[in-house]
Structure to design on (314 residues):
């Protein structure tokens, strides 16, 4: 334990030297709430996939929107991209848009879209 | 180079240290961005071949309730991971360890479920060479499984480091960077679960 404390103090001192920013992240209670919302969205997704009245483009739209909301919530709140430097967000978005562009090009090329 | 990166370097040089923390975090985000393209290619390939079953089983053999439970487990592992990171930031070593162990257990459960699912599919005739559908399905979900396995190993290494008192060692990968990787694995599964499983049934 003594070793842990010494190391933690050393890291703290290093952070203070470097003037590291402290941006307020969500509290543990808020993380639980976010997880609850994610679980509810997942349940709605599964339920929607079993409702025969929602087949076709409507179902596809609903599932893609719900999946997109879950994706955005995890990236923004659990990965802290909402609170971090824009540099990180930009690097991630470049990759994400690259993936989407490739997805559209591939499926259009093979006439699968 | 962006202003943020320049400012970080400036702080580090002014204090006479070479702080590589922001560089490592930037590198992790670049890596995750490149991983988006990697999985984007895999998902595109699956969608291209989703109807090419060549007589072998297709998406009708998917067990949605079982995969939903697996998805829920992986989603909750993101919660335990973020709680581990939160405790790490507050220097609460005991809580950090507890949540890290929880994440390892949930990740391992997801992997066990995936192995069980693959075994069932193979018994039903959906093998890797059976059809383009089978190949693209196993390549996509298999590579995701490998990513989960790597994440579990990294998290287990963090747990071991916490017992040897080196968790706050500021070199190499730390809880924050491994947490980013773990959440990324989770968001990839969110896409796979929606596009590969739910949209095909």
């Amino acid at each position: 334990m003594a070793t842990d404390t010494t190391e933690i103090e050393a890291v703290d001192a290093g952070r203070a030297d470097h003037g590291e920013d402290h941006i307020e992240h969500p509290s543990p209670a808020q993380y639980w709430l976010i997880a609850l919302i994610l679980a509810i969205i997942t349940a709605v997704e599964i339920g929607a996939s079993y409702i025969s009245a929602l087949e076709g483009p409507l179902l596809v739209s609903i599932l893609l929107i719900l999946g997109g909301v879950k994706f955005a919530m995890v990236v923004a709140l659990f990965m802290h991209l909402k609170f971090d430097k824009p540099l990180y967000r930009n690097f991630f978005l470049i990759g994400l848009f690259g993936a989407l562009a490739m997805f559209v090009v591939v499926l259009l090329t093979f006439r699968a879209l | 180079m962006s202003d943020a990166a320049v400012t970080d370097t400036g702080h580090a040089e002014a204090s006479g240290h070479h702080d590589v923390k922001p560089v490592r975090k930037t590198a992790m985000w670049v890596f995750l961005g490149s991983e988006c393209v990697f999985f984007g290619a895999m998902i595109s390939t699956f969608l291209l071949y989703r109807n090419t079953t060549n007589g072998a089983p297709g998406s009708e053999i998917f067990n949605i309730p079982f995969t939903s439970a697996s998805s829920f487990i992986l989603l909750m592992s993101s919660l335990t991971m973020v709680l581990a990171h939160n405790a790490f930031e507050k220097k609460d070593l005991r809580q950090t360890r507890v949540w890290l162990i929880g994440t390892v257990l949930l990740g391992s459960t997801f992997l066990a479920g995936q192995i069980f699912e693959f075994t069932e599919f193979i018994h039903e005739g959906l093998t890797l060479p059976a059809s383009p559908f089978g190949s693209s399905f196993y390549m996509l979900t298999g590579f995701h499984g490998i990513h989960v396995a790597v994440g579990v190993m990294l998290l287990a290494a963090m747990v071991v480091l916490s017992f040897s008192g080196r968790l706050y060692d500021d070199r190499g990968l730390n809880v924050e960077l491994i947490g980013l990787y773990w959440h990324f694995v989770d968001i990839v599964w969110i896409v796979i679960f929606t596009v590969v499983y739910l949209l095909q049934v």
Notes: Residues 20-198 of chain B form a domain with the Four Helix Bundle (Hemerythrin (Met), subunit A) fold (CATH 1.20.120.80). Chain B has one domain: 20-198. The radius of gyration of chain B is 20 Å. Chain B touches chain A through 61 residues (CB under 8 Å).
